[in-house]
Amino acid sequence: MLTAVLFGFVLGALGSIPVAGPISALVIARGIQGRFKAGAFIALGGGTVEAIYCFLAFWGFSQFLEDHPIIEPISRGVSALVLLILGIVFIRKKHEDGPNEATSRRLRDSKRSSFFLGAWVCAINPTVIAGWSAVVTTVYSSGAVEFTSRQALPFAIGVALGITSWFWGLLAVIRRNRERFSGNTLTKVLNAVGMLLVVLACWFAYRFVDYFVHPPDIARLARLALTRSHAVWAMAPA
Length: 238
Description:
Elements: H1 2-16, H2 22-32, H3 36-58, H4 62-67, H5 71-91, H6 99-108, H7 111-123, H8 128-142, H9 152-177, H10 183-213, H11 218-233
Helix pairs in contact: 1-9, 2-3, 2-9, 2-10, 3-7, 3-8, 3-9, 5-10
């Protein structure tokens, strides 16, 4: 059980290192704005939902997405819209918050609203299950961990801890170094984060349109679903 938690922790942390993602962008932006509590709970919300997806992937839930392929393009369309809105908000930021405004915004950053923002942004992309299915299958096939059904929850908990710990560490680094930069520099960083979100939105929008312009081969998807399902369900006890 402890091994499953440790493996989940490491994989969750490593998977969070790339900054080209909506949760990463939101956490970095909140940190730059000095809204560290909001960033911490956004990370916690996103990590919780991703751990749930990891748990579902362990049980072969990716088969559900393969059986209902329309979920994937819909989630991409929603993701594109959300990321575009967030990106525009950051790009339009023209100056660093003054003391009164910054204090007011921090007061509005409740733990609940920040947690659900992170959870919602992660939840609108259910294809994360496919990614974790690949990870779980790879780890299982390597023989490094002998997964059983009892280890699904410890593994998912480890993933949540790994993701959250990485982002909290990142916020700590930002907090320590934030005062070294001018307000103008911080604003430029926020604008850059906004442009990154817009680029991601365009990518999701492209994938959304491409699905309907070039529909996937149903037979190929069925074979892929069967392969994934067999590999993941092989972990369950007889």
